[in-house]
Amino acid sequence: MKKYIVLVFALFTIQFASKAQQIDTLSITLENVKYAYPVQFLNLVTEGQDVRMAYMDVKPTAKNNGKTVMLFHGKNFGGYYWTEVIKSLSADGYRVIVPDQIGFGKSSKPFIHYSFHQLAAWNKKLLDTLGVQKVAVLGHSMGGMLATRFALLFPEQTEKLLLENPIGLEDYKTFVPFVSTQQQYQTELKATAESIRKYYQSSYLTIWKPEYDELVKVAAGVTFSADFPRYAKVAAMTFTMIYEQPVVYEFQNIKVPTVLFIGKEDRTIVGKGLLTPDQQAIHGQYQLLGKQTAAKIFGAKLIELEGIGHIPHIENPTEFLILLKGSLL
């Protein structure tokens, strides 16, 4: 009996230790998350606050082809999930610039009015600081909304607009019930590793793979930080930004060469949890939204990916990178 109790206790200890190792406490600016390439910072001042915009500036590892690609991450991510894309592009001679937007990743988390116009202007300032005159901009998810705004504001700097399962292909405020930033803040505070993993599994990734747990570890690790309330408040503020600042009505104004990469199994809706199952069934249908959006943008090319959800560059990096590189030529 004594041996049995010792064995049970040992198993419990191992399981507990394993779980503790799976989700480590992370700071809300991800100081303890190692990015694949050196991180630098652009100092900015906004609304009377000093803030820092983190970015990676990765030089070509092969013969420089003279071209630069800028990568805009999604709302629930940062520069850390672009590693394979950066590696592949730099190996083909591209300079790759990867910012963490203000409010995300390793960048500052200020309480400000979040605006796609302002984020786009900061990215333009980053390019000016680095002496880069033209870029191809690849935006994933929320980064697709930002990349669209960037191309609309700065067409002369935008060599190509590349949209990877962008959100904002619908005007969410026309069918998702309004919640205040304060109400959304209360929702964000409830985030756990379990809820984050469930959300990723149900909304983002078609077939769950063990390596996707690394994405969960980063997103969930910050929930254990003493500063998590600030992180949650900023997340609520950027939710409001997405909800209140649609780009869907301006696709016809895009004047730069555009390519849409659409995982057809994507069912992402911002505010999906506020909808009934019947409402969820008629929105977030990317196999339709991709076609509708491409038809609005003059000369746009649509590339559809079968059996892929919201993050093609993670779900099928080999296929995505082949298609991406072909579109950059």
UniProtKB/TrEMBL annotation:
Transmembrane annotation, as ranges: none
A single GO cellular-component term on record: membrane
Domain AB hydrolase-1: 68-316
GO aspect biological process, one term: acylglycerol catabolic process
Keywords linked to the UniProt accession: Hydrolase, Signal
InterPro entries reported in the protein's UniProt record: AB_hydrolase_1, AB_hydrolase_fold, AB_hydrolase_sf, Epox_hydrolase-like
Gene3D superfamilies: alpha/beta hydrolase
Superkingdom in the source lineage: Bacteria
Pfam families reported in the protein's UniProt record: Abhydrolase_1
Signal sequence annotation: 1-19
GO terms for MF: monoacylglycerol lipase activity
Name this polypeptide is given: Alpha/beta hydrolase
Native organism: Pedobacter cryotolerans
